[in-house]
Design brief:
Layout: H1 3-59, E1 62-69, H2 77-91, E2 105-111, E3 118-124, H3 128-131, E4 140-144, E5 155-165, H4 182-187, E6 198-207, H5 210-244, H6 247-255, H7 257-260, H8 277-281, E7 290-301, H9 306-317, E8 325-329, E9 332-334, E10 337-339, H10 344-356, E11 366-368, E12 401-408, E13 414-420, E14 426-430, H11 437-450, E15 454-458, H12 464-472, H13 475-478, E16 481-485, E17 494-495, H14 509-524, H15 532-554, H16 567-572, H17 574-580, H18 586-594, H19 605-616, H20 618-624, H21 633-638, E18 642-646, H22 652-670, E19 683-687, H23 690-707, E20 713-719, H24 727-736, E21 739-742, H25 747-754, H26 764-768, E22 774-781, E23 784-792, H27 796-800, H28 809-819, E24 823-824, H29 825-833, H30 835-844, H31 857-863
Parallel strand pairs: 14-20, 14-21, 15-18, 15-19, 16-18, 19-20
Antiparallel strand pairs: 1-3, 1-4, 2-3, 2-6, 5-7, 5-8, 6-7, 7-11, 9-10, 12-13, 17-24, 21-22, 22-23
Length: about 850
């Protein structure tokens, strides 16, 4: 038999057998189709149930990490790529039995009013160790966090953002500066915690399976080639139609004999365009860095309409990624009807995805790390973060707050920022004259006074008390306020006084003597090298007069106390000196009997000259020359008094007086070491025109900022040119400042402040362009620096208008002078001029102290 015929017969038998088998299977299946369907359904349902159970079990064990960036966080593309690859690997962690739908990692961006935009990562528990090692390095702090536990809100809206575009199309690659998260930050900037506002964006990531990626590529290539064939066929039909309908071709065919015999013109049909595989598959060309993505958004509020408004803003913020593909809300609209994840029919599915982080991306839910780089990192230093109520409170009277400036958020709402009294330690203000530095300090002082705090305001101009009087004219402040106005000129004007050597407050004699000597030495630039003799003479003279005052107070005659102006007769009048020696013990008087007579008389001029200059001014003589002080800074600190001091001017002698005052701040603050820490009531010093005050007291101001914080003292300094301050003062102020502020000014002056804000976008040019009353300022709240912020300086009437009592300003001034023990200038001058005689009369009736250092009559005569 022919082998070919045998092979053909075998093939026919095989085909017949196959057909017979299929027929038999069909005849068996048809009667049992329902049972088979039920069995298949049970198998699929069981498999789905198993997958759900396993997914729920895997998703129940999650690690939660919170990423907190530093103010200088500025990652590069390579760092973000590494972080993205790390997130993809973390998403695939977990037991081998974990279903693919549960192999997810969630990036949660949350804004609830407590922070501008919190950034969290939620991943399988097995990836916890991997996630603690952030690719961003020390610029981002990674800390374990608890699962988010939300309270119920009245109104909640939801949406799912899907990638819409051609297959393989990519999102727009957004540059890293400005921060890609800036639109989202601005969208949630208006969230108000008191209304229950909440906005959350959850970006769920899952590794891209290789077989799925390969299948997807083949599908895209098949679609693109089919499209190319359809385009070629369409072009062929168009070409045939064009040829058939062309009049010129028809005429040529009639005139051409070759066409009469049926030999027509041949036309080649268009060939399908070549499909480039890499261009066709787009962002699916490479598997590295590819991930499946689903983005869920939920907004809520307790006020109707706000949740919908927030959702619309969040959706609009995602337009920054719109390119060949874009992120768009899932669903469709028909007039006012919206059908989507928020509809009741699909809401349960959304809530399940939200709660469990299940991955159910749309068919086109594929993206690369570069496309979503903005969502794979926390906000960077390039982002303009809003200041929320929870970060920096809004000023409310009587809330122990200090108003700092009007801040306008991205939502357009303006509010008066404030810092807590206890957080505001030292402050530096710089900038042009008349642009709001003093006004801002006055607002601080008024607020602090109404908070029940004590303060001292030193104003060389003398008009600030008039500005604030109407806002301080309240009973509780009238009982605490004192005014020392040294700008008086008429003999009938009232003024308080200050005896630097007054011992009526129970001070330690050696502390008072040391403070006075240090004050003069600081003002005059004396030290042990430049002026050792002058320091010795002044020290012994002050110690002797302090001993006299101790005796006068002990005798119940404080009006007989000596002042610094009695140093001159002590050094130059022998009779007065003999009387003073009656109050000294043997050790103290021995120097006067053994060393003083050997001093050349012209050596005394160094000590006498500054005293003569102070005595030459009748106001200064009256202020410092009376025996009993109305001015007592330690008492003001302990009783939370409001002290207003207006120095007479800014000349050399006036600066010496200011140095004595500022040095007394330091002495009074240090003397509080005898109080327990909890009893040291806070006290603020406001020093206006710091350049004039710093000229003689540079080391004092530096020491105040360095030493008095632990004693409850705070300092606020205002100056036009920070670089003109003594380097020690400038360094101490900048080192310890909890608030830095500057208005417009010269670039050289502004740079002193802006250099303290590294890693920010504020430049000296930005500050120099500020209008009047505008400031750039940084603040410290709960140990965290906020800013620099662009704020509008507060004004007295704008902030305290409800507190203004203009009809009571005269009463306030009378109370301030009365509390300071003020008397007429003529009376104080007469008292100061007669004080030498008063002291002499007291000493004449004093019994001489008898000690082993008894002074013989011969020695006294020689000493005289």
């Amino acid at each position: 038999m022919d082998p070919n015929l045998t092979h053909a017969a075998g093939a026919a038998d095989t085909a017949t057998s196959a057909v017979t088998g299929l027929w038999a299977a069909g005849t068996w299946v048809l009667p049992h189709v329902w049972w088979l369907t039920v069995a298949a359904g049970l198998l699929l349902g069981g498999w789905e149930l198993l997958q759900r159970r396993l997914a729920a079990k895997a998703l129940a064990e999650r690690a939660f990490m919170e990423l907190v960036p530093s103010t200088r966080f500025a990652p590069g593309e390579e760092e973000i790529w590494r972080q993205g690859m790390q997130l993809i690997r973390a998403a695939g962690a977990g037991p081998w039995w974990t279903p693919r739908r549960a192999r997810t990692l969630r990036v949660r961006l949350r804004a609830d009013g407590s922070r501008p935009l919190a950034y969290r990562i939620e991943a399988p528990a097995a990836a916890g160790a991997l996630l603690t090692r952030s690719a961003f390095g020390p610029q981002v702090t990674v800390a374990a966090a608890a699962p988010v536990a939300d309270k119920q809100r009245t109104h909640v809206v939801r949406t799912v953002l899907t990638l819409n575009g051609k297959p393989g199309a990519a999102l727009r690659e957004v540059p890293l500066e400005p921060d890609p998260l800036q639109p989202l930050v601005d969208a949630v900037a208006g969230i108000r915690a008191e209304l229950g506002d909440l906005a959350e964006v959850c970006v769920d990531l899952s590794p891209a399976p290789r077989w799925h990626v390969a299948l997807r590529r083949r599908q895209i290539l098949h679609q693109q080639r089919a499209k190319a064939r359809r385009e070629a066929a369409r072009e062929a039909r168009a070409l045939d139609a064009e040829i058939a309908g062309s009049l010129s071709l028809s005429l040529r065919s009639l005139l051409d004999p070759a066409q009469w015999h049926g030999r027509g013109r041949m036309v080649m049909p268009p060939r399908p365009q070549h499909v480039n595989p890499e261009r066709a598959v787009g962002n699916l060309a490479e598997g590295a860095g590819l991930m499946r993505v689903q983005i869920l958004v939920r907004c809520a509020s307790n006020r109707e309409g706000r949740a919908e408004q927030l959702l619309a803003l969040v959706n609009a913020s995602m337009d920054v990624y719109a390119g060949a593909s874009r992120l768009a809300s899932q669903g469709w609209s028909l007039g006012p009807l919206r059908v989507g994840p928020d509809a009741w029919l699909w809401r349960r599915r959304f809530d399940e995805q939200w709660a469990q982080a299940l991955m159910r991306p749309a068919r086109s839910g594929w993206a690369r790390i570069e496309e979503l780089a903005g969502l794979l990192k926390p906000p960077t230093a390039a982002a303009r973060m809003p200041v929320l109520e929870s970060e920096m409170p809004t000023y409310v009277p009587d809330a122990d707050l200090l108003p700092q400036g009007w801040y306008r958020g991205p939502d357009g709402r303006e509010r008066l920022l404030a810092t807590h009294e206890d957080d505001t330690l030292f402050e530096v203000q710089s900038g042009k004259a008349g642009w709001g530095k003093t006004m801002r300090a006055q607002v601080h002082a008024v607020a602090s006074a109404h908070n029940g705090r004590g303060l001292a305001f030193v104003d060389p101009h003398g008009d600030s008390f008039t500005d604030v009087a109407r806002y301080l004219a309240h009973d509780d402040i009238m009982n605490r306020i004192t005014l020392f106005d040294l700008t008086v000129s008429g003999p009938d004007e009232l003024m308080g006084c200050w005896n630097l050597l007054d011992m009526g407050g129970g001070q330690r004699p050696y502390e008072v003597a040391a403070a006075v000597v240090d004050s003069f030495a600081t003002a005059l630039g004396w030290d042990d090298v430049a002026a050792p003799r002058a320091l010795t003479i002044l020290t012994k003279a002050v110690e002797a007069l302090v001993a006299v005052n101790c005796a006068a107070v002990a005798a119940g005659e404080p009006e007989a106390q000596a002042t610094i102006f009695q140093i001159r007769p002590l050094l130059t009048v022998p009779s007065f000196r003999r009387l003073v020696l009656r109050a000294l013990d043997g050790e103290a008087s021995r120097w006067w009997t053994t060393s003083f007579p050997d001093l050349p008389k012209d050596g005394l001029l160094t000590v006498l000259n500054p005293l003569e200059r102070l005595a030459a001014n009748p106001v200064t003589r009256a202020f410092l020359g009376c025996p009993v002080s109305g001015y007592d800074m330690r008492r003001a600190m302990d009783n939370s008094q409001v002290v207003w001091i207006c120095p007479p001017g800014t000349g050399p002698t006036d600066r010496m007086l200011v140095t004595l005052i500022v040095r007394d701040f330091l002495r009074a603050g240090l003397s509080r070491r005898d109080l327990p820490e909890h009893k040291r009531s806070p006290f603020r010093f406001y020093l206006d025109e710091l350049i004039s005050l710093d000229a003689g007291a540079s080391t004092v101001i530096a020491e105040i900022t360095e030493q008095l914080r632990k004693f409850g003292c705070r300092l606020h300094g205002m100056t036009q040119l920070l670089h003109r301050l003594n380097p020690a003062t400038r360094a101490a102020l900048l080192q310890n400042a909890s608030c830095l502020s500057t208005t417009a000014g010269s670039t050289e002056a502004i740079t002193q402040i802006t250099s303290q804000w590294p890693g920010t976008t504020v430049t000296p040019e930005d500050v120099a362009a500020l209008d009047r009353w505008q400031h750039y300022a940084s603040f410290t709240v709960a140990g965290t620096r906020i800013g620099p912020l662009h704020v509008r300086g507060p004004e007295l009437d704008e902030v305290f208008r409800p507190l203004a009592r203009p009809r009571w300003t005269d009463a306030l001034q009378q109370a301030a002078l009365s509390n300071a023990g003020a008397r007429q200038l003529a009376e104080l001058t007469a008292l100061a001029l007669a004080q030498e005689e008063t002291v002499s009369s007291f000493l004449e009736g004093l019994t001489p102290r008898t000690t082993s250092g008894h002074i013989s009559t011969a020695t006294q005569e020689h000493f005289a």
